[in-house]
Amino acid sequence: MFPNKCSVAVADRRCANPPSKVVSIVSDDGQYMVGVSCEQHSEVFMARVKKLQEDGKLESGSIRLEPLNAVGTDCIRGDADDLITPDTGKQAPHDR
To answer: What residues contact residue 82 under an 8 Å CB cut-off, 6+ apart?
Structure first.
């Protein structure tokens, strides 16, 4: 699961745009996602990651910016009979 909003905050207000890019760091140990960015804030986010790397607050490595692709599937289907109430384990009432 990914956040539904861009990870960038401007003037203490988080950007409300949906993400379109995944920002990650590729190092010898692997690849680590550090956040998601909308199209408008991609360069700002990458500059911030680079600064945090220079300050030693994030692992060094190359910064990768990749498009976020939505994937849909119809292989998981739910039915009203599948719903349960978490605290009792009883079936939740449903309309038929």
So the answer is: none
